[in-house]
Design brief:
This protein is of the alpha+beta class. It is built from two helices and six strands; from the N terminus they run αββββαββ. The chain has one domain. The two termini are 17 Å apart. 27% of the residues lie in helices and 30% in strands.
């Protein structure tokens, strides 16, 4: 049986965030307080490629703080890549935890299809 799933991504799992960073070949996230344009932010700090300021993730709420000045200080596509990579890695972690297998397929539009099945 096939199902279509829509996911609203909240970043709560530090392990999945680290895996997403690795997947995107970014530096590992670190817990820190960093200056953003509007003031300091504390949480898991992710430095996206070509962004002036980092993304700061509060894993207790799943929210992200960042300042890209409407794209002038960082391409929003980079943040979307992080969210997509997080969703894939979190799905893999949870599927493995339940003994399920995940097959991944990159699609021509940049999206990723995951097929989760029981067994091998």
């Amino acid at each position: 049986m096939s199902h279509i799933v829509t996911i609203q991504t909240k970043l709560r799992d530090a392990v999945a965030i680290a895996a997403a960073c690795s997947r995107l070949q970014l530096d590992p996230p670190v817990h820190d307080t960093v200056p953003l344009y509007q003031g300091p932010a504390t949480g898991l700090v992710v430095r996206l490629r070509d962004w002036r300021y980092p993304v700061v993730v509060d894993t207790t709420t799943g929210t992200t703080r960042y300042d890209n000045y409407e794209g002038a200080w960082g391409d929003p596509a980079r943040l979307n890549e992080l969210l997509q990579a997080y969703a894939v890695e979190k799905t893999r972690i949870e599927a493995r935890r339940k003994g399920l297998t995940v097959r991944e397929q990159s699609l021509s539009d940049g999206s990723i299809r995951l097929v989760v099945t029981e067994g091998v």
